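Cross-posted from the bioinformatics board.
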Amino acid sequence: MPEIRQNIATKEWVVISTERAKRPEDFKTTKEKKVLPEISEKCPFCPGNEHMTPYETYVVNDEYGKWKIRVIPNKYPAVLQEGTVEFKVSGIKRSVTGVGSAEVIIESAKHNVVLPLMPEKDIEQIIKVYRERYLAAEKDKRIKMVIIFKNYGEQAGASIEHPHSQLIAIPVVPFHIRYRIEEAMRYYDETGKCVFCVMLEEELRLQERIVVETGHFVSFVPYAALAPFHMWLLPRRHTESFGEITDEEITDLAKNLKLTLSKLYYGLDNPDYNFVIRSVPVNEKGKEYYHWYITIMPRLIKTAGFEIGTGMSINCSLPEDNARFLREIKIR
Amino acid sequence: MPEIRQNIATKEWVVISTERAKRPEDFKTTKEKKVLPEISEKCPFCPGNEHMTPYETYVVNDEYGKWKIRVIPNKYPAVLQEGTVEFKVSGIKRSVTGVGSAEVIIESAKHNVVLPLMPEKDIEQIIKVYRERYLAAEKDKRIKMVIIFKNYGEQAGASIEHPHSQLIAIPVVPFHIRYRIEEAMRYYDETGKCVFCVMLEEELRLQERIVVETGHFVSFVPYAALAPFHMWLLPRRHTESFGEITDEEITDLAKNLKLTLSKLYYGLDNPDYNFVIRSVPVNEKGKEYYHWYITIMPRLIKTAGFEIGTGMSINCSLPEDNARFLREIKIR
């Protein structure tokens, strides 16, 4: 019997479709394996081509003074840095000026590295840059939300193959986020607890869906995973904003993220994926009921009319099977 | 300056990204043109292969007694017909048994026809079958929502190329739908009007985003279109449930849908798309503040981390340009 599961925190429903279920190994990607060069002449993110991008806003150099991580304004920004926030309401038209920031974090000078195969130390530096840029974006009084995300591979919407992630800061809080906060608040008011902390505690007790446990972080396939191999990576410490992550936690997050992504990389043959750092809106800090986390979404299936029409998902795999499969993949 | 627009009815935000904007003609698909046979030997939906599918629940025959439209239970159903609705709550786990119905509407005996090129009369018959199956599904006391949708092409999640659409009836109302209804109710309580009727009236007055007007229906690119060429097709008459559509309205809907989809077909070289009939939940009938409609979503772009993290969209085209482009396409 298929089961329709609900995520206790987000209240999202997902049909766990046993009749269409596939085995975890059936999700291995069949995409063409490309061998990439260390430097690509035409790539705007490769060393030597710095003139092809806007001037950097932040840079981390290696011991020889060459850049290792480079943050640049997006050349085709979704929102613009300059301008004031102006709401316009006229008849059915409601809009706000698209101001904010849109940055690209070039994760390495090398064109052909992938995040899960980088040394932990390098991932640690990337996360430190995330924190730095997150805190910088947050200071802008016009900003209501800061999103950091990575699109890896064509199915995940990446148009450039050079390793990079993005930051977008926007002047509104979408209802999708308001709704989550409201639900978390309701849970807190009823029980005195953060629903994300409760979820993490229960997942650790059950051990059915855990993928990687490290000192400060835990990754798992949620009970109501929206798609095959969808994962959450939560800090054990209750904090609502990614900006509050400590240096010690960053070291541990680098370790956990590397392991978690490696399991996807080896287990499913380097699938396309997105990850997103989900943090509280800027003006909602200090809330006891919200918890930041990273959502990792491999792009293995296509959404269709049912998902558009209901906002629900159909997951043709069992979260417990996905988690077991990933746990069993040994990483040296 | 990019503009972040909000849909007055759904409250969805979308970044209308002028910096990334493409011209309407840039969205023409480049997919390989396949010439399909009228009958495909291996296709489970083709005549002669009826034994490859479950037994039909409904059928429309032509004048020679051969089937023209065939409704079958989905062989790989998301939800199962047999069973009782049981909610389970235990710790962080919340679920309901996956009961309901999942049907496939085979739109034609011919493997190689496409909906926009079918005669109006045939489309009319298909919509009559939609209504028939919608009303049948609604009668089931276990059902809370009925979704009818079409996935056309691989990008839209279709796995079989034979022309077909689907019906899924589920025992829960997802929050995505609850939220829309709540917003529509709030608008009604404040103004005494259906927000969808107001939107339609205003779009007709402005004439900026209209695509096709017929006697009973209007298609337009919404002011806050979520993606390039995203369209809404609304009945002029205020009705909250698709099940209430009259025969006369069906005749007109066939005409409008054919024209609207033809403009996509000719204008963008036969793009993949989904459409969904969005109707009120079964137990919410008689509401004065909700309005059923069809959402048409061409699958021309990929969603990425920003969309996952915010629930917002980035539309790299201007709704007014999209609508003008489609209006100017002449259909014989």
